[in-house]
Amino acid sequence: MLGVCDRGTGRAVSGAIPVCIIGASGYTGGELLRLLAMHPNAEVVIATSREYAGKPIGYVHFNLRGFYKGLRFSPLNIDEITDKCEAVFLAVPHGASLELVPKLYETGLKILDLSADFRLKNPEEYKRWYGREHPYPDLLEKAVYGLPELHRDEIRNARLVAVPGCNATAAIFAAAPVVKEKLVDLDHLVIDVKVGSSEAGSKPSPGDHHPERENAIRPYSAEGHRHVAEVEQELGMLAGRDVRVAFVPHAVSAIRGALATLHAWLADGADEMKVWRAYAAMYGKEPFVRIVRTGLLRYPDPKYVIGTNFVDVGFAVEKRIGRMAGFAAIDNLVRGAAGQAVQSFNIMMGFDETLGLLYPPLKPA
Amino acid sequence: MLGVCDRGTGRAVSGAIPVCIIGASGYTGGELLRLLAMHPNAEVVIATSREYAGKPIGYVHFNLRGFYKGLRFSPLNIDEITDKCEAVFLAVPHGASLELVPKLYETGLKILDLSADFRLKNPEEYKRWYGREHPYPDLLEKAVYGLPELHRDEIRNARLVAVPGCNATAAIFAAAPVVKEKLVDLDHLVIDVKVGSSEAGSKPSPGDHHPERENAIRPYSAEGHRHVAEVEQELGMLAGRDVRVAFVPHAVSAIRGALATLHAWLADGADEMKVWRAYAAMYGKEPFVRIVRTGLLRYPDPKYVIGTNFVDVGFAVEKRIGRMAGFAAIDNLVRGAAGQAVQSFNIMMGFDETLGLLYPPLKPA
Amino acid sequence: MLGVCDRGTGRAVSGAIPVCIIGASGYTGGELLRLLAMHPNAEVVIATSREYAGKPIGYVHFNLRGFYKGLRFSPLNIDEITDKCEAVFLAVPHGASLELVPKLYETGLKILDLSADFRLKNPEEYKRWYGREHPYPDLLEKAVYGLPELHRDEIRNARLVAVPGCNATAAIFAAAPVVKEKLVDLDHLVIDVKVGSSEAGSKPSPGDHHPERENAIRPYSAEGHRHVAEVEQELGMLAGRDVRVAFVPHAVSAIRGALATLHAWLADGADEMKVWRAYAAMYGKEPFVRIVRTGLLRYPDPKYVIGTNFVDVGFAVEKRIGRMAGFAAIDNLVRGAAGQAVQSFNIMMGFDETLGLLYPPLKPA
Amino acid sequence: MLGVCDRGTGRAVSGAIPVCIIGASGYTGGELLRLLAMHPNAEVVIATSREYAGKPIGYVHFNLRGFYKGLRFSPLNIDEITDKCEAVFLAVPHGASLELVPKLYETGLKILDLSADFRLKNPEEYKRWYGREHPYPDLLEKAVYGLPELHRDEIRNARLVAVPGCNATAAIFAAAPVVKEKLVDLDHLVIDVKVGSSEAGSKPSPGDHHPERENAIRPYSAEGHRHVAEVEQELGMLAGRDVRVAFVPHAVSAIRGALATLHAWLADGADEMKVWRAYAAMYGKEPFVRIVRTGLLRYPDPKYVIGTNFVDVGFAVEKRIGRMAGFAAIDNLVRGAAGQAVQSFNIMMGFDETLGLLYPPLKPA
Description:
The structure is a homotetramer of 365-residue chains. Helix content of chain A is 32%, strand content 20%. With 365 residues, chain A is α/β, with parallel strands linked by helices. Chain A folds into 2 domains: 4-164 and 335-349, 3-Layer(aba) Sandwich (Rossmann fold), CATH 3.40.50; 166-332, Dihydrodipicolinate Reductase, domain 2 (2-Layer Sandwich). Chain A has a 7-stranded parallel β-sheet with strand order 3-2-1-4-5-7-6, with helices on both faces. The first copy, chain A, has a 7-stranded mixed β-sheet with strand order 9-10-8-11-14-13-12. In chain A, α4 links the parallel β4 (87-90) and β5 (110-113). In chain A, α7 packs parallel to α12. At the A-B interface, β8, β9, β10, β11 and β13 of A face β8, β9, β10, β11 and β13 of B.
């Protein structure tokens, strides 16, 4: 990490992959800048922002004062990106990627799209949840859902990775092992998510105004949050059948962090040991997944993964009534966005998957 | 409310019921003192505290500086209580009421017990959840579960009211209407609760130390929280059959507030209109229950009932997969403890049920 | 407080003063609505809002659901106000009162202006701080600075009360006793203020976006906050000479609350006893001021006045280097705005000054 | 940072300095473990804890699950430390170092003491502030005050570094440039500090119980905080004369972060340009100090240095009345404790001063 302050010169350093971040002034863009500042094999050479074009990075991202001294936000210029970069991260609002990705795809760049535009494989599902025909169904097919623990091999060969949503990431991690092993009743899956305020992005809004957002315990999108589509897609693939999920996200009082709580009924023959084995089988060797079972804290809490790409998972089984709860805790901006994107980037580039990402979270945080 | 500062003289003012608070230095005790300072027909004449006996009320309850000028915490003295008071509130740890209530009951005092000791009607259930035989099963029988919206008539004639737990109160309010009307599949009920830090009381502990508790999104007691027993008892009564609930509470980052989210599958024939009618039928005329459907915020958030006895309820129905979510938001220290106790006290005394309790919450808070 | 839910019918109830709130949908307006809902002698009959005209009160003020059932926001109509009301509260942005107050003043209504427009007595000071000539210097003269503990008699006879700013209120309360008694070096006064996010109002902004505002410890307006003008005016009057104040406000992480810390050097002959006497002389008999000296918490913290009109004051003297600190803690929306306005309203109307305002704060809050 | 998970084997890796942390289970100890996990040239081989001896690191430090897999907390054993380590960090309560440091010093180990026990050079000052004679005045003389920006050369040759307190660090950074250049009236210096809850350590206490600590704006130690002694010592050295400081810390609502606000009057001839030059002269080339002047945020806020060793400094000059404010923002656990210790460790070892410490803070955080 030595010398990180000297980086960000606006040109590729020797041996580093030159990359571009489109939409670099928001929270996800800022998080990509933060993570890539610590990445030994990547160098951000273009960071676009419509609003702040011409300003230094630290003008907006106060945390990055002193970093990226040679770089300023610039307007979007696809020719320049094609010319200078090997990979591009899109940290743009949903819908904007629909226009940009096809153009970028043609140029042969590796693309990591953090929007929702290319996450669903099935164009009909896209239409159901987003209310319009997907204009590029062929690209839907080529895109890989960028959850490395489920799609590592496809990511390796992908040119377009659709980075999962934060709520979806937490939900899938909580449920995947027991859904895959069919240890639970797949017809009565509930996933209740609690998430911090940074999820909604950097643009002020009445619901995220501090006096309204702080102390909130506020359900939202209680009957059709769009991340459900991703969750059902991925869990369905694991189960080998259609899966429907009762899903309610809640805005709670934290800046970062998302916890997914799976509530499920045990299938016949399932018990605590089998549940444990399912989690261990899926996550035991994953460098970024930590199974929480012991210690002073028995279940995952996103508080203890803040700032990192870790996913803490855990579970509880209540024998009395044959049910279980599964938990997954993430930092919504890292594992739920920028970190997961860098992890996929590492895989696409043939790097060690953990490059630039394997440092400990803060505590207390 | 005029002249409230002149109150708290340690003797009954004309026309007011003299009451005692046992365990007055904790959060629940403090909240009883706060609420009763505004009550036109009650006067706290004894406030016991082992730790702070001899100290003025404001020594501990900084909010009450200037109030209760003539009153100091005193050691517990049942004779004095019997002599001076007509009603007694027990704000003591679970287990302590088991010793005190029988003695107090004999004296003929009206008793409002805020502990868990007399909430369960079935001694076997008590044994299952609390790990020992209940020593006074006859008192269990006489005790009334102090949730006025469900047991108003019994409370009117009760001498012993067992005030519900905070998580249980929120859970029951969220689920009661649809359980009673059997609009949901009673075999797959999930209740996911999120609650603030004051729930755990005023005694410092590692888990509630500010650096650990702030920003937490932390599941706890995920496979056997004791409030489940109360919830299943009350929902079972409403349904006229055994009901089991998958229940997980989560510590979230707020001081006050609890939100219960019911996740359920619609029964055959149930739809949004029927769900709405069930809530309206049960709560439409209740002075403390507000059904949230319109406005800038579509679902309940405990943030907007803070400091009061209100319960905000609401729901969402997802037709796509035949499910619903039900919500109830409370202030855990008021509706989840002291306020609900005062509401029951009003009923027991034949007062208007809302006496001293009907003032608006804060916003923002 | 009984029956408060029946209030807010849009017409004056017998014996109550009909009042209007101009700008009723913001935080200060909402707080006026909350406080007046508990006021036995006042009735809000008009609540104006440009943005929400036609909507029920609870549409915006979620805390007030169930209250003011007969009232809706309405557009501003001065004739109607004149016709129906005896007093009017202006909870409008600074500058807007400059246009409204002169018109309202003509009609003979009692006016409580919560903006900054009429707080300064000296038109030159107004020009210096607000950058333009005051268009109504005669009204500046007639306006009374609505800090009852300093201007009670003038308020009694006023038709126009300029309610102090929240930071200024806290600052003046912290410093007034020792400035008046000249116990401190008047040439080196420092007032350092810490304040919660609701101070900035209900309109979303980048600086008050939850992810940016939460956890902030952020100085602002460090060299010319406009409240300095009020503070210097009032302290100057008390001292009988010009007083200049080094003043820096800081945004800290709370929704409500403001603490002013006066840092000062003791004048010759001043000592702890004299400082104590100065506070006691000025505040000892004030119903809303509590001098904090004993108990588990030795200094004021706004946390324990939240929701109320109380001011907790205190101080510390460091003999070693002949200095002192003075503290005043308020709820910025109540004592720093709406509550102080109602207190002045009570005085103007000849009511008991504490009417509708004397109830205990929350703890914990 | 690659391979960090493989570290913590309990033995020195090739080329790394083996170090010990005494008192490794508290917040400061945990922060040392976190930082040293990222340090390329150091390896923690012993981590002592009385309470958790035998437990794995992640049992207590949930953030470090997956790290330090080969290491467990162990009881204190000075022989073993001497045998295995080259440097030792003491993260023990004040007073405990008085016993340990002399023993460790004899062994020739490099010592970084994070307690207050060896910070004051003058034994009389120690007695004044700590109420007893210092038992090792000779070690006071040998100890170097570990603020690298002021004492870099002495640290290079030190065997005992006394790491500054968090409030003191922030205070000194805010004031040092203008005190050194005598741009302010040295007889009227005020430093007002605001600090998060982690400052008080990991041990639960009534004042840091979440419901009491959250939302607090609470002055404490308002007339004799012990960090004043350090601040006056260091500012006095810079000024070449005795300096006294009016100092009040305030507990505000954040977990991490401390902001010091210097309030001062300008000396004759001082102006904004000279103040700016003083800050630039002292900090312009420091790798960990960032001078904040431009961008969307004009003054330092500890929020934007969280998790790092950075100090953000800034100032404001109010010409009208010849005053200034100076600001320094730090993470109290990093720059106010563990990070500053590692920075000094780097200097003592002849490493690049920034080793393991130069990564960007989080935003939002």
